[in-house]
Amino acid sequence: RAFDILKLIEIGVEYNKYHNHPAILPVLNPYHNVCIRHLIFVKNRYVALGKSMTAMSMGILAVEHAGKPPKETDGLCFTQLSWMETDKQPSNAAYHLYEITDQSLRQQIIKMLEPGRTIPSNLH
Questions:
Q1: CA-to-CA distance for 119 and 105, rounded, in angstroms?
Q2: What is the pLDDT of residues 55-64, one digit of tens each?
Q3: Quick one: which of 98, 51, 56, 108 has its CA closest to 81?
Q4: Model's pTM, two decimal places?
Q5: pLDDT in tens, 97-107
Q6: What per-residue confidence (pLDDT) applies to 115?
Q7: pLDDT band at residue 13, thresholds of 50, 70 and 90?
Q8: Cβ distance 77 to 37 under 8 Å?
Q9: What single DSSP character describes residue 76?
């Protein structure tokens, strides 16, 4: 098994030479399937959680995977951070909009929107 992974490791090492984004390890949470959780920061004030909507993707904020017990929880979950500037509330019933009243939390999320703070992705 070791030899088929060596080329992927070499590609990863080469990629890291030219790209500056944080290395993240998965949070150990078991999942049965693969899922994408969208965290959309709306007008630097609200967070919308739900399925995809028109927003600027900033990248992967977190990865969750446990893999134990084998064949039962082999899934994973990506948390995609996105941002949108809008004056109107999302009308999609699949979204729940939460106002962020904690200034410290708001500042932490704003900091995560800076370039290089998330892993680039094309998840939708």
A1: 20
A2: 788 888 888 8
A3: 56
A4: 0.67
A5: 788 889 998 89
A6: 82
A7: confident
A8: yes
A9: E
Cα–Cα distance, 38 to 4 (Å, whole number): 33
CA atoms of 105 and 107, how far apart (whole Å): 5
| Measured torsion, CA atoms of residues 12, 14, 17, 21, in degrees rounded to the nearest 10 | -20
Contact 35, 75 (CB under 8 A): yes
- In one-letter notation, the amino acid at residue 22 is P
* Per-chain mean pLDDT for the chain: 79
| pLDDT computed for residue 69 by the predictor | 82
114, amino acid identity:
E
Residue 79 phi/psi, 5-degree rounding, is -105, 115
Cα of first residue to Cα of last residue in the chain, in angstroms, is 32
